[in-house]
Amino acid sequence: MSETIENCTHNCSTCGESCASRTSPQSLLKEHHPEATVRHVYGIVSGKGGVGKSMVTSQLAVLMRRRGYTVGIMDADVTGPSIPQAFGIHEKAIGTDDALLPCVSESGIQVISINVLLDDETDPVIWRGPVIGGVVQQFWTDVIWDVDYLFVDMPPGTGDVSLNVFQQIPLDGIVVVTSPQDLVSMVVEKAVKMAEKMGVPIVGLVENMSYVPCPDCGKKIFLFGEGKAEEAARRHGLALLAQMPIDPALTKLVDEGRIEEMRSEALSPVADVLEGAKE
Length: 279
Ligand code: ADP
Fold this sequence. Notes:
single chain; alpha/beta; 8-stranded mixed sheet; 30% helix; 19% strand
């Protein structure tokens, strides 16, 4: 005999009751703050750290802001936060009784990061996974975002903090960032498979540090070989949306907190897709 619960909504994914009639697992997705407005959420992921995930997140935010959208960045890379630095944000976020207000960059991009919460932004975060996971969850549930597009700079790799983000934040899709060397290893494949298992659509692949433009003739020098990114994208059935060169001007802008002044249009094809995906 199947046991039924009073007030059954017949929506097992949002129900927390233990019930013999359950037909699907409970969803772990969390609601954002009741006063927040978030129209689209995209995660920026990479197989490992240092491939330019934060660079891609920052540039996408800048491009979408220039197109007239309201934009936010959630820096979920809690142990390696680099978003506030890129945007020259050194002040602290303001908290109310039950909410947190994001910091706002010069061009109006809303930013939340562990670095705008710590007393000293040079303090290392030496917390264990569950604590970090709790902080990232609060970046979603407790922050009063007011954005058309929220970009989540995900923790690198496929560890438990990434898993939390996938489970708790209703991502519209992810952009996978890779370096040329990464393509030959299995780290990209693992990130792609994680998204597939979590049922999150993959917008496409961005290869960062693909080539160096010759300073004299502009010819593209592919230090790690040409054509590998296309091949990897094909193998995973993904669109290769952009290939970004190594550009010392970009490193300088990040170091000086002036990424909003960047002139690169390398990620415009990604911005086009995100803009086209909105209803
Ligand atoms: P991740 O977020 O994947 O750890 P970052 O975006 O922080 O990586 O990039 C690592 C470093 O490389 C940073 O100093 C960043 O400014 C620099 N960088 C990233 N992409 C480029 C690029 N295309 N050209 C020049 N420097 C870059």
